[in-house]
TrEMBL record:
Compartments, record wording: Cell membrane
SUPFAM superfamilies assigned: MFS general substrate transporter
Organism field: Streptomyces klenkii
MF terms in GO: transmembrane transporter activity
CDD domains: MFS_MefA_like
One Gene Ontology cellular component annotation held by this UniProt entry: plasma membrane
Domain of life: Bacteria
Swiss-Prot/TrEMBL keywords: Cell membrane, Membrane, Transmembrane, Transmembrane helix
Topology with respect to the bilayer: Multi-pass membrane protein
InterPro entries with a match to the protein in the record: MFS (IPR011701), MFS_dom (IPR020846), MFS_trans_sf (IPR036259)
The Major facilitator superfamily (MFS) profile domain, residue ranges: 216-442
Name under which the protein is recorded: MFS transporter
Glycoprotein keyword on record: no
Length: 442
């Protein structure tokens, strides 16, 4: 027995050995954390679960968060400005809508072929370069006389590198916050600010376009990306690349995707992150025809578009603030299983108020993503984390674009409220099947 050991630990040898191992592990862990300069505050000294305030207590996270907010406000403003600009130049509703859709369509391509960048290069460099490329793209669209083809090409280019930016940022949160509860809450805050910035950005962008031209408004997008790049460059630490080797980006990206999809657990978790969003977009994509059908006018369209983000924000905040990490994991599968059921109320062709409550209620169920994030980061090997986050983001964006298109196509033949209700029925069955896959992969 070691000298100086407390008398109360002189009981059964196994118990004493357990304490020694635990103590050594604690000391090694503390030394390693100091060595890496990382802050892990999963629980306070009092033993309470971590909260959003603890996440903001990490200096690097504040820089990543602020950079994301600035770039996001620029993106949303730019989406509106570019859509209006294309319509003014061409007078074509189709091309104007295409300017919006190009923000979704290249995501799968970029997430599949360029994901290797997230692991093969230092994360800070990737984040800064991606923001600078997006700023350059926005600057080209702001040039006087830029043809429509160039405007659409630049929109597609930004969307092509978008998943690399988003995936690298998500993987960086693991470096900054660790792989525990702080990571989950950090991801939650990124989603919350994304939803909130969309609401504020669309409103601010609309007001901005009443005062300046669309090309001038695009300069705000440029400024947002440049400010984001500066924050990331000087507000975060340089870390080495996660994966060694200099393999070509496309080869590394495809190889990573094959490895992730070949693993039963990772594949099931990816499906759970993709299946619900595919169906959740139905009310938003059909907001205009549904509002017209119930006589709600353009104001009704705007309100219906806000319902889902508001519900999502409330659900994430409540789950992140009131539930413990274990409780958030417990609600993951039940919440995912039922989040589309509110859409069944559309069978009754609800009024604007009830329709708004319905989509907001469905948005609350998106809190299932907090537990899912914890499972996903635990299932993915460190050297594949950047590619995994990029693939997850690319898939989620792509399925939303596909879901919007499919809902719109169905509404050509079936009333909008029946399409939304059908999305609730079919989606609940599909998500239920995915839930069973997740349970079976444990």
């Amino acid at each position: 027995m070691c000298s100086g050991m407390p008398a109360t630990l002189s009981g059964p040898p196994a118990r004493a050995q357990s304490f020694v191992r635990s103590r050594k592990s604690t000391v090694r862990g503390a030394c390693l954390r100091r060595l890496l300069g990382m802050t892990f505050v999963a629980e306070s000294i009092s033993g309470r679960p971590a909260g959003y305030r603890d996440v903001f207590g990490v200096r690097e996270f504040r820089a990543v968060f602020a950079a994301h907010l600035l770039s996001l406000l620029g993106i949303v403003t730019g989406e509106i400005a570019l859509s209006v600009l294309v319509y003014r130049v061409t007078g074509s509703p189709l091309l104007s809508a295409l300017a919006f859709a190009l923000g979704f369509l290249p995501y799968l391509l970029g997430g599949t072929l360029l994901a290797g960048v997230a692991d093969r290069a230092p994360a800070r460099r990737v984040l800064v370069v991606c923001n600078l490329l997006c700023a350059a793209s926005a600057a080209v669209t702001a040039l006087p006389g830029a043809p429509v083809a160039v405007l659409l090409a630049m929109r597609g280019f930004s969307a092509l590198i978008g998943p690399v930016l988003a995936g690298t940022r998500s993987a960086t949160l693991g470096d900054v916050l660790g792989e525990g509860d702080l990571f989950v809450l950090g991801r939650s805050l990124i989603r919350i600010v994304t939803q909130g910035a969309q609401l504020a950005g669309f409103a601010a962008g609309g007001l901005l376009l009443t005062a300046v031209s669309p090309r001038a408004a695009l300069l705000f997008t440029v400024a947002g990306f440049l400010a984001s790049a500066l924050l990331l460059r000087f507000g975060t630490r340089r870390r080495p690349a996660r994966a060694a080797g200099r393999a070509d980006v496309i080869g590394a990206s495809l190889s990573g995707a094959r490895q992730l999809l070949a693993d039963r657990r990772t594949r099931a978790l990816l499906l759970l992150s993709w299946a619900p969003p595919f169906f959740l977009v139905a009310p938003e994509s059909l907001a205009a025809p549904y509002a017209d059908a119930i006589g709600a006018g353009t104001a009704g369209v705007g309100l219906l578009m806000c319902g889902m983000p508001v519900g999502t924000i409330v659900g994430e905040v409540l789950a992140g603030s009131l539930l413990s990490p274990r409780a958030r994991e417990r609600i993951t599968l039940p919440a995912a299983s039922v989040l589309l059921l509110p859409f069944l109320l559309y069978v009754l062709r609800p009024s604007l108020g009830w329709a708004l409550a319905t989509v907001a209620l469905a948005g609350l169920g998106a809190a299932y993503t907090l537990g899912l994030d914890q499972w996903f980061v635990a299932a993915v090997p460190e050297e594949l984390r950047g590619r995994a986050m990029t693939l997850q983001t690319a898939g989620a964006m792509s399925v939303q674009g596909a879901g919007m298109a499919l809902a719109g196509a169905a509404a050509e033949y079936v009333p909008a409220h029946w399409v939304v209700a059908g999305s609730g029925v079919i989606g609940t069955l599909v998500v239920g099947s995915v839930v069973r896959l997740v349970v079976g992969s444990r």
